[in-house]
Design goal:
single chain, alpha/beta, Rossmann fold, Four Helix Bundle (Hemerythrin (Met), subunit A), 5-stranded parallel beta sheet, 4-stranded antiparallel beta sheet, 13 helices
Amino acid sequence: MHAWPASEVPALPGKGRDLRIHDTATGGRITLDPGPVARIYVCGITPYDATHMGHAATYNAFDLVQRVWLDTKRQVHYVQNVTDVDDPLLERAVRDGQDWTELAERETALFREDMTALRMLPPKHYIGAVEAIPGIVPLVERLRDAGAAYELDGDVYFSVETDPHFGGVSNLDTEAMRLLSAERGGDPERPGKKNPLDPMLWMAAREGEPSWDGASLGPGRPGWHIECVAIALDHLGMGFDVQGGGSDLAFPHHEMGASHAQVLTGEYPFAQAYVHAGMVALDGEKMSKSKGNLVFVSKLRHDGVDPAAIRLALLSHHYRSDWEWTDQVLADAVERLGRWRAAVSRPDGLPAEALVEEVREALADDLDAPAALAAVDRWAERQNTGGGTDEGAPGLVSRTVDALLGVAL
């Protein structure tokens, strides 16, 4: 599966700072110190309704991670999946009378268009669950053969008790895990499971649903968590720098995935940091496909909203915060974009070297994009009221905003 085209990232003078970021597993801030190649895995969409503002906010956060790393003169090895076969996708296809593969292809294509418009840097590897199945089956077989998985009416489940580190990503108690498991795709009430929290690794073929050759597992399709593990281990290996996604993925998805990988390899940890973006609400409730309260990037674009303004609206909120999308949020972003463009359109301006360092410091401090925006606001206000004589300043500001914030002025 192919990703989307990359926008050019301007080179800035000097060098950026190492990223200090909040790690869900430890509950505190850690300084990431990747080698020459920083490694990041971000969980992708289930393509039946893309791309709403919650998606955009999540991928914007991890785009900033990439940009901070690139500014430190590192390379970035970024991997993202597409869960192009799963119950919600199949259910939506049945509801709408569509072929599930056509639905997945259409929504994935729309997602690519939105990511391109928002200037999100693409992953090096963009892998669908279906194309990953040949690599998933052997992992499930290894877990079963090692006694870390068991069969139940033809399905194969992972035994969470085989990982001594289970629970160390989300740090939730058992009852909270059980409630979230039921809410987020698990089946804790199914009779016959060794532990209610045990997640499915391989679903035996169901009548009327797609299935694939599972070798000794029999026909079926993979569970959600093992999909990402197979892709991440194949392309990044153990101990990569950041596992990312929305905060609703901390449990069960990232918790289960870490346990799968740690039992498979005997190594710990799966990722050095687990980083989670906050949720975006509309009309007082979290945006979600199940509720249908979605604001779509494509709809805003088709209504003539500049993608740079959409991106500024996302950047105006700290990536870990929960916030609400409103017309005013977008209006403020449109107004800010206009002020910034007016400021950099002058032939000369106020010196901007200090601004570059302010933006760098803000983003290195747990991706504090609102502080970075405020720094540019201050420069733009002084520029628009008085200006200066530095002919290179407007261009430097424009390149800084592009390189570090992904906004084209």
